[in-house]
Amino acid sequence: MERKIVHMDLDTFFVSCERLTNSQLNAIPLIIGGTSGRGVVSSCSYEARKFGVRSAMPMVMAMRLCPQAKVIKGDMELYSKLSHQVTEVIQSKAPIVEKASIDEFYLDVSGMDKFFGCYKFTKELVELITKETGLPISFALSVNKTVSKIGTGESKPIGRLEIKEDNVRPFLNPLSIQKIPMLGDVTFQLLSRIGIRTIETLSEMPVQVLQQMIGKNGIDIWKKANGIDNNPVEPYSERKSISTEHTFEQDTIDIPKLKLLIVGMIEKLAFQLRSEEWLTSTISVKIRYSNFDTEQKQSKIAYTSCDHVLIPKVTELFDKLYNRRMRLRLIGVRFSGLVRGTYQIDLFDDTTEMMSLYQAIDKMKNKFGFDSVMRCAGASIKPKIDKKNNYKK
Question: Which of 16-25, 122-131, 264-273, 339-348 shows the lowest per-residue confidence on average (mean pLDDT)?
């Protein structure tokens, strides 16, 4: 049976959400992101893109390119709510759904040609999504996730595209290698220097040579250039929380030591949030006294996955919770209210320097291990939390 994989992408999702709540934002250049002079662009309308504005661009540069643009901070709570509504509509109709991000979905509709016609089914589903939520959405239907994702990007805005198996190579060949998912700027520059700029040229390159040039990812990139992708659509299940607890060998009342431990716990959990592309909106702290009395306090925060935001919030919550002069035997931290997203989306008020710092730190952690880069506070007492992580679905 021929695979039929759909990629759906909500068009300029943040912008579309804002326009649903404020019609005065329609048809004008609109930028979502940090409102300070050193902020970054999180999303922008097609009207702003015509002037060269792009996501992750410094706000100063964006305003130089499009000074007439309307800039708003953004509302992650609204975006999360509408994303959830879209998810519910898709899950009510499609057999297998993977939620790749807050505004992207993969559907496996293989075999549905027998009953409905895969393209017709997908088109009607997209129309239902727009009717139920008011949000525009593009899709592409093809034989695998890679080709479908590239197809959606080529069909926007409000695109409807089907790329059949015998048309995969003709569709991919003339496109820039930048269209290949997960092919970053460094790899693009490397390949461009030796004259490889189109997917067709890349697909004809010996895979062994490509592997020698860029490492193990060379094989994956070569396969994608040839329209090969056997990755399945992973059924979506919402993670509810991520948490960790630490039980002391000896009960303690050492407040400075406790706060250093909290920093280390937050660092590790925040790194996992970013690695798995989650943002948290609710923080909780739990403590257990030496007499086994257990208390817990939680607080709502703006969506984030950043240490420098979470550490003071959690520490403040701990100060409010721990009000007895009694030894502790256990301390725990939990992040819940999770939504899909990255710190690039989340840092409405932070700078490009902060974004670059997190990207560099996470890259080193992924390559050399979590303990390779840590805050001084977190490194002074390394929490033994690996064996006590509790991940709740």
Answer: 339-348
For this structure, is 200 an active site residue?
Answer: no
In this prediction, residue 350 has a pLDDT band, given cuts at 50, 70 and 90, of: low
Could you tell me the pLDDT band of residue 307, with boundaries at 50, 70 and 90? confident
- Which residues are paired to 390 by β-bridges? 243
3-state SS, 24-47, equals HHCCCCEEEECCCCCCEEEEECHH
In the set 2, 18, 47, 104, the catalytic residue is 104
Query: Do 140 and 163 contact (CB within 8 A), yes or no?
Result: yes
Q: Which CATH number fits domain 1-140: 3.40.1170.60, 1.20.1560.10, 3.20.20.140, 3.30.70.270?
A: 3.40.1170.60
- Regarding pTM above 0.85, the answer is no
Q: Indicate the range of 24-38, 199-213, 343-357 predicted with least confidence.
A: 343-357
Name the residue ranges covered by the structural domains of the chain. 1-140, 241-392
How far, in Å, CA of 315 to CA of 377, rounded? 13
Cβ atoms < 10 Å from Cβ of 276: 14
